[in-house]
Amino acid sequence: MQLYTFFIFILVGMLTALIYDLFRILRKVFKTNDFFTYIEDILFWLITRFNFII
Question: What is the rounded average pLDDT for all residues in the chain?
């Protein structure tokens, strides 16, 4: 059971890193002002929050 939980945490961490990299790439491709950067940060937080619930 512990090994299963360990692998789940590894997969969740990899998914979170992938989402973070996508947001980072989007920020470099599309230059946005500070307001939209805050919105993107909140969106990232919400996505990763629901990622850990599932």
Answer: 86
For 3-21, write each residue's pLDDT tens digit: 998 998 899 889 889 988 9
How far is residue 35's CA from residue 45's CA, in Å, rounded to a whole number? Answer: 16
Q: The pTM is what?
A: 0.69
Burial class (CB within 10 angstroms; exposed 0-12, middle 13-18, buried 19+) of 16 = middle
Residue with tokens 């996505």: 47
Report the Cα 36 to chain-centroid distance in Å. Answer: 16
Radius of gyration of the chain (CA): 14
User: Could you identify the residue written with the tokens 């989007």?
Assistant: 26
